[in-house]
Known about the structure:
Blueprint: H1 4-27, E1 31-36, H2 41-45, H3 54-61, E2 66-67, E3 74-84, E4 91-102, E5 108-115, H4 138-144
Antiparallel strand pairs: 1-3, 2-3, 3-4, 4-5
Amino acid sequence: xxxxxxxxxxxxxxxxxxxxxxxxxxxxxxxxxxxxxxxxxxxxxxxxxxxxxxxxxxxxxxxxxxxxxxxxxxxxxxxxxxxxxxxxxxxxxxxxxxxxxxxxxxxxxxxxxxxxxxxxxxxxxxxxxxxxxxxxxxxxxxxxxxxxxxxxxxxxxxxxxxxxxxxxx
Length: 169
């Protein structure tokens, strides 16, 4: 007969291998993240161009993600689905932008849907815009302040009038 402790020792590597395999499989499962407001297709079909009002759209689709504050009143419903695996950067798998344009009377004038394929890649500019002034390091800042402030009442203080600071009365 085999002792129980020896029988368990023979199984330990198999148990550890199964646990490691389970953890590795879990790490490779994508983490899905849904963001934004994506109205259901049935509700979108109920919005009638030339007939539905702002209030109708608000009741059917809810609050928009953004409202344009210039030109014609335009409501945008924006949603996206991203997936990330382990430590890799998230990847956008799906994006939808539903645009509802209203006329001056508050009636739907136009409605459109755009997806990820309609988006444009933006080139990020790496340069910096120069600004006026000096760039001082810590030592230059500290030495530059020596003598700029004096004791109260001896003149040249922050108030600039040589006396105590006004109390606001």
